[in-house]
Amino acid sequence: MRRKAIPQPSHPLKSFNWHKLAENRIGGTLWSEIDDLRAFTVLDLEDFEKMFSAYQRQQKELGSNEDLYLTIRKVKELSVIDGRRAQNCVILLSKLKLSNEEIKRAILQMDEQEDLPKDMLEQLLKFVPEKSDVDLLEEHRHETERMARADRFLYEMSRIDHYQQRLQALFFKKKFAERLAEAKPKIEGILQASKELCQSKRLKQLLEVVLAFGNYMNKGQRGNAFGFRVSSLNKIGDTKSSIDRSITLLHYLIMIFEKNYPEILNIHVDLLHVPDAAKVNLAELDKEINNLKNGLKALESELEYQRNRTRTSEDKFVPVMSDFITVASFSFSEMEDLLAEAKDKYSKMLKYFSEEEARMQPDEFFGLFDTFLQSFSEARHDLDNMRRKKEEEERRARMEAMLKEQREKERRLKKSRAGSVSEEVGEFDDLVSALRSGEVFDKDLSKLKRSRKRSGSQLLENSRERAVSKLNY
């Protein structure tokens, strides 16, 4: 390879991470027409060195003896790592609150002292030294004391053999039980829900009644059915009564169940695992199980590598991970068997309901039943509200009738009392008048009676006028 007469900087500069072309690929390209040496006669290299020095410079001006002391004490820091990446790395290290040596010891000992939380390990994996980082840092390996904090950390971690693999193994170990605990209920949900749908007598009776009504309602090609797709259950509520639009076929079915099949009303008791199974995405579950399987394989490969190399007494990878793999493999094998059983039950259950396995994933199939159960419950709630409303209206009507009757009785009684009083007063007045006129001694009393009647009527009229006068007053 030809050597170019490239000027050398007076001190280390930041690197430009390019992918250079091999010399044998230059011929016949535009690069063969370019001569970068000509540019050096024009460029201000001294200014360039100031702008892109590998040493970090203080941004503020020195204004006190303390600033001067700190500047002298800190010395110029060497940084070759990307600024944003270095800054984020420093933030992580400040949260971790461990020295580089303590972090290194924890990784070698597979964190026996539990110094590295799972979330911190996950973040550390984002700051694994890349090859370009290692190459740049190696160029300054004799200046470690002058390296910035992030550079120093990445450099020291890069000195650990298979640092990334160790970190991944430790993170996998810490997360394994948690991931297993998250996956297992999903598998059991599919398994149990598949069993429940096949074994539920209430569901079978419900489908029987729905099929009967469907055949009774449908004529021609749509009638005379021997079964129907499960998705049809969620269309029952679309058919509304021609008498009351607030009543659907689902409401009516529930009324029929209440009267003739009360046990069906408790169908949700038979299908307790269906709502959970409806949330399981089998493709994602398979992916997670496959990731766990690959993680264990990678761990076994790393264990084999570590066994074949010379280790220090401080390195605990082999004994710790050997024990972990033994236990983890057994637990994982049990879960794989459980998943196989769940898939088998689910497949048989789909055939039992005459559904196509290739077109129906668990979350979709169980989701149909989950939606129906919710609609069923809401329809029962609707009916309860309708009945309460009807009872309230009937009660209010009875109360209004009673109040009306009571008012009528009081009115009649009042009228009766008023008539009785006026009659007694009229008779007394007639008697006094007769005594004065001498009519009381006449044998014909018809004139007396007529006079009493006229007086009574006049008295009643006078009483009414007085009452009106009082109200107007």
What's this model, at a glance?
65% of the residues lie in helices and 1% in strands.
What labels describe this entry?
473 residues, mainly alpha, two-stranded antiparallel ribbon, disordered C terminus
Percentage beta strand: under 5%
Query: How is the main sheet built?
Result: 2 strands, antiparallel
Please tell me what the overall shape is: elongated
Biggest sheet strand line-up: 1-2
How does this model look, in words?
It is a single chain. Helix content is 65%, strand content 1%. With 473 residues, the chain is mainly alpha-helical. It has a two-stranded antiparallel sheet with strand order 1-2. Helix 14 (282-307) packs antiparallel against helix 15. The radius of gyration is 48 Å and the shape is elongated.
Give the arrangement of secondary structure elements.
Layout (H helix, E strand, L loop, with lengths): L36 H4 L4 H7 L3 E2 L8 H10 L2 E2 L4 H14 L3 H9 L9 H7 L6 H9 L9 H10 L4 H37 L1 H17 L31 H12 L6 H4 L3 H4 L4 H26 L9 H36 L9 H76 L8 H27 L1
Antiparallel strand pairs: 1-2
